[in-house]
Amino acid sequence: MINRLWCETAIPILWKNPWCYSGINYKNKNYLFIIIASYLSDDTKKFLTRHGIHLPSVSCKSFLFDYLSFCRSINIINIEIITSIGSSLVYNQFLLQQEFYGLFMKKFPELKYLDMKSIKHQIFYFPEARLRFESLCELECDTSIDSSYFYGLARLCQYIKRLIIFNRKLGNYSGIAKLIEVQRNLKYFEWEDTHWFRIAESDSCKEVLLALTDTINHLKLISVNKDRTLQRVLPKLHKLKSLIINDLYIDNEEQLKMCVYRDLEVFMVDHYNLKTASIIIENTGRRLKKIFLESYELNDYYGNFKADSLIFIRKIHENCPLIEYLCLSFSPTKEHFNELEKLLKVCQYVKLLLIDMVDISRERTEEKFLENGEELLKTLIRSAPTNLREIRFLYDYKFSLKALEEFLEKWKGCSLSILTCEPIYKEEDYVKVINKYKNNGVIKDFICESSTNVENMDENYALPIGWHF
């Protein structure tokens, strides 16, 4: 009624995937329930009404748009929430969901996206399902679903490009493996364990990894088993553009050198495997733009941490001239600061830099941390690239008021965001200095948060430091 052109443009976009808005409470969205229910046939409405399900009297013929004809997606959990509006009884909700899914198979011109976590309905048995599932591009699911369901999908879906699996239950994964095996163009694969159990206890998980083929461009594995299966799988995935693994353990160095990824742009790994990461970085095609490290307590890693972190920095400035987002973890030694300075001079495209300093010496005093901080700021003053816009500071260093002000004075002309986990910068003297440089445009933001938030805050960038992807 206000702007017909805007309405005709927006409705197809909003209804392409009306279940995907995380900020919406679908329990309160009666209009969604009314619109979908209005498409049901009169006989179906009578059947459902006899079971005590409350249905709207409005007909879809009274709508300005054929809303379901724009839809290309199904989200099982949100559908379950919406059907609860019609009845509070579990059986009635089941009946209503069954009718809704049958309606979707008839009305949707194609199905591109399916989130079927916790699904209870065999929706691929509907007469029109074959045509809808042939076009499926993206699937999210979990391992609580019986393997037979995945066998059914494998019969219909062979062109899935993006597959995301949440491992909620140990069991038989042969159905998932079969679904992966029949795919002809799988580009993105994600497996995430949602509970802290040992996946290695189930041999069938190996089937899933071994089913992956070299069509994969993006691989994300969180808390996957630590056996030797990855050593067999990773070398054949030579087309990877992003590799995200929170426990990249490969003990065979010769086999690790076979992991050659000439197109790799995004690489995430944990602090414990810096040596492994360095070998992979050396074998990339100098296209890496993002390197992130998952933070751990490094008590068990002190033995090799100095040497491994030094090599890690060196491999980055030797092989990553295009790096933009970078997480570094190292000891505050003269050698490490020298390598850091070389990196900053070579890698001129760095926009975001997280520095996690780990002082493993016995001299863990306030004075030592202030000394570490002063040396770090001097290195940044001398060599920081002109593109640098955000620095995140973690752990074993602090900045004296004098050192911080000298650093900010040298930074004039750029609007810099600083994130730190040290509460000292909330003290009055520091706040005065920080506000002074905020007012003259040197500092855009100065945020003191928990270490977890410093790693994971992502307001400024689509790909934050941490494990969101």
From TrEMBL:
Domain of life: Eukaryota
Protein's UniProt name: F-box domain-containing protein
Stored InterPro entries: LRR_dom_sf
